[in-house]
Amino acid sequence: MRNKIYLFLLCFTGCFVSCDSFLDLQPKGIVIPRYYEDYEKLINYAQLLKASDSYPNFMTDDVYLPDDGNVNFNDLEVPNRNLYTFQAEIFGDAETDGLWEYSYNRIYYYNTIIEGVMEVEDVTLDKKRSLRAEALVGRAFEYLTLVNAYANHYDKNTAATDPGVPLMLDKEINKSNLERATVQQVYDQILIDLDTAALYLPSKQKTAYRASKPVGLGMLARMYLYMGEYNEALKYAKLSLAENSSLLDLKNYSVVDPDKSIGRINVPYGADNPEHIYIRLAPWTFGFSGTAFGSDELVALYDHDNDMRFKLFFSNYAWGVNYDHYLWLPYIYANMAMSVPEVILIAAECEARVGSKDQAMLYLDQLLEYRIVGYQPQTAATNQEALDKVLAERRKEMCMLGCTRVIDLKRLNREPRYAKTITHVANGQTFTLEPNSPRYIFPIPPKVLSFNPNMQPNER
């Protein structure tokens, strides 16, 4: 009986038809799980093990695409060409924005667990609280991505009025004419979810596909970093690292077969990589691999001879072809959620901003010793120099990863020292994206707006 309930829930919520609803998604029927095992199966549901999307990278300064060849601009799908050339519209009326649609689909599942698991009677209170905490982290993670993709970057002076994204906090999705919560309201909900989860998350899980205490603390650090609350971000980053600071020594790995894509390198991935503390895969498992070249600016940041991130993850040879530029070519599972290196870099950035430049460099040393052959500890004469170095390492360490670079560009554009204009060339035309342009904010999908006339669109 339990398995039937679970399968009915998945089948019915996986079969969608158009309706006058918020998401343009409507389950044909819903059967609520009754036992703890049912909810645990939901938290392990394949769609919940994914997150975000890779296409936002097309609008960043990390990506280069020529006009011809095996990997080129003209072979992109239309939405990705629109992103690369900074068009006002990205998706057409009949096209699906996977980042939005699947994020809200996952939120529905998390809401089902959050609402229902405490009512089951076949396990202890601690187990129910722990599973609910995992779902709260998952929901907070989805909203932190959504609000940073589809809204103005957090600004304490305007967040209370800036339109964010709709808050769906229950399992009822048969709603119409929904409106957007403010950016502040979305962040307030993220904080509530993470603070509540922190009380009940286990210190360690059997697998990194399940949220644990260092994940909840790390997510708080990420949230406060995006808010510009650097003291709070530093506090939670330190707490997360106290729980788990495992790193993978990339110097122990190599390119084992340059003629392959999958299997080109022998770096462990998924749960076999100890620095992945929370794993959510890209919709396409290998993420952005093989999709574009690294920009000249990005590629120039690496030590080509000694930085294993460059030697392993980029190549100017693939599929029997020699290229003039370096392809992004890891072909290992793309973890879109959270890793120890990110938490270390948050701590380092916050130390450089509000703490000690020397401590910031120690955090960099901690990471780069596992990345660079013959690494020598770094120094910085000022906090500003330390911050410059940390931000360069963040860009190298986290490139081509979901919405990360887009969000970093949005937040750093607020600082004159880091504001930049991005230039892409396609078919002989030059396209530019100015700092703080409204085109950094993704449009609300046309299908969503068509079902929700009261929902405010983003002006691009």
TrEMBL record:
Its subcellular locations are: Cell outer membrane
Does the keyword Phosphoprotein feature in the UniProt annotation?
A: no
**Which Gene3D superfamilies has this protein been placed in?**
1.25.40.390
What's a Pfam family this protein contains? SusD_RagB
Q: Where is the RagB/SusD domain?
A: 342-458
SusD-like N-terminal domain span: 40-225
Cellular component aspect of the GO annotation? cell outer membrane
Q: Could you tell me which InterPro entries the record lists for this protein?
A: SusD-like_N, SusD_RagB_dom, TPR-like_helical_dom_sf
- Chief location category: membrane
Keyword Signal (UniProt):
yes
Listed A to Z, the keywords are: Cell outer membrane, Membrane, Signal
The UniProt entry's sequence similarity note says: Belongs to the SusD family.
Q: What is this protein called?
A: RagB/SusD family nutrient uptake outer membrane protein
Species whose genome carries this gene: Butyricimonas virosa
Q: Taxonomically, what lineage is the organism?
A: Bacteria, Pseudomonadati, Bacteroidota, Bacteroidia, Bacteroidales
